[in-house]
Design goal:
Helices cover 48% and strands 14% of the residues. By secondary structure, the protein is α+β, with helices and mostly antiparallel strands. This is BtrH N-terminal domain-containing protein.
Amino acid sequence: MTTARDIDARGTQHCETTALGVLLRHQGLDLSEPMLFGLGSGLSFIYWDSKNMDFPFLGGRVKPFDLTRNLAARLKLELLVQETASPRKAWENVVAPIDAGHPVGLQLDSYYLDYFGSKVHFGGHFVAMYGYDDHDAHLVDTDQQGGAVSTSLAGLAQARAARGPMTAKHRSFTLTVTRNLPDPQSRIIPAITACADAFLNPPIANLGHRGIDKAAKLVRTWLQRTDDPRRDLPQAALLMEKAGTGGALFRNLYRDFLAECVELLDSGHLRTGHGLYCEAAGLWTAVAALITKAGESGDPQCLVQAGAILSDLSRIEHEAMRALSCLKE
């Protein structure tokens, strides 16, 4: 078996930050998962629905790989990204860094990974690969997927070649910590204000605080939006709470990031933002519970309550991001 040495196979809660953590710890840079998420300006919101979708999707973070790009730019990391339509070339792109002793990040469709219990297509999944043999690839995934895991080379090839929403063309990437690495603490305020500006000024109504307000209105119609509410509504709630979000649609992660920042920086704006995201995180978990209950019971009043809480969340998160945006002043 060929492996990169000294891998800290610490699985965490979210797939992209798990992969980033493996790659950066191997380079000697050990940051908490909330700090990785926050420095990458990872928090967002999207209400996504279209004619070819079976059911609406609520997303709580920026697009796949934007977090990695943001983090690399902010910490002046050398990010090498490779994509190709050729499966042969794609495999060469992965084994070259591993043969040289370095783990590599992969974006793929989790449906084809042998160890995944939930067989749902998701093309924005990330893993860190640190070794391989004649039959299997050795990966680090989230805690809930097992941390250090293995999948067949055939399954990995299918996962990387998949096409569909959020997929990439056999994307692999490596990170190198450069000599001019800035103090991560000095990059906190730019990361927070960039995230706040994007959230407060979304280009379309499906995003940011406007997207949450839109969800507040449309979630009330979800029982009429599906032929199988007992399947679709609990599944939507599961994606909010359990599917690699860290809970509360990534609000737990951002709350914990802000908690770390409050310990490092003396700022009333930071304390305000942290307090409001503590409140928001609990409310998002309440929304998920009401959506699950609506699906299981068929009671539309559960969705009316969920919509009312989402209206509050739009206001609370708008207020939080306005406070955090003042950090640059």
